[in-house]
Amino acid sequence: MAGLKVPVDPRQDHIQGSVNTPLTLVEYGDYECPYCGAAYPVVKQIQQSLGDQLCFVFRNFPLTQIHPHAQHAAEAAEAAGAQGQFWELHDVLFEHQQALDDPHLVTYASDLGLDVVQFEQDLATHVYAGRVREDFMSGARSGVNGTPTFFINGRRHDGPHDFVGLTAGLQRALEEEEMSQ
Description:
Elements: E1 14-16, E2 23-29, H1 34-50, E3 54-60, H2 70-82, H3 86-95, H4 102-111, H5 116-124, H6 129-141, E4 149-152, E5 155-157, H7 163-179
Parallel strand pairs: 2-3
Antiparallel strand pairs: 1-3, 2-4, 4-5
């Protein structure tokens, strides 16, 4: 079974929850991907269901050949992250997948109260393109070739990305964790 080649790093990754939880769910995603859009509320539901048992990590994997706004949307999320609002913009981007051009990205940044001048400058100069590329390359090394791709406790989840499928994968991982202790 394929494994996550670049371990979760609290200094590098965008994380919701504690890294000391029994379950870690890593998603390689693309803000313009309709399948990632469908998985977004599922992940939210799982986070709500599992609470402090789950650490969720999002890594950028923009499929630029088929999603023309994916790269800039990922850079925008990173620019928001530099201002302490990665998750806020992450959510807005998935909730507005049909409107990811630059004027909309700037509107979202403004609505979140970000420093828009800095945000626009970061986008124009591609300050975070390297950060997005690092995520992408870590995914490529882990065998990611489409989005979304999930890893549960470091192992690729090849089952369905719906609530039942992901929850079953997480439950198996939790049982394995408990048996190994």
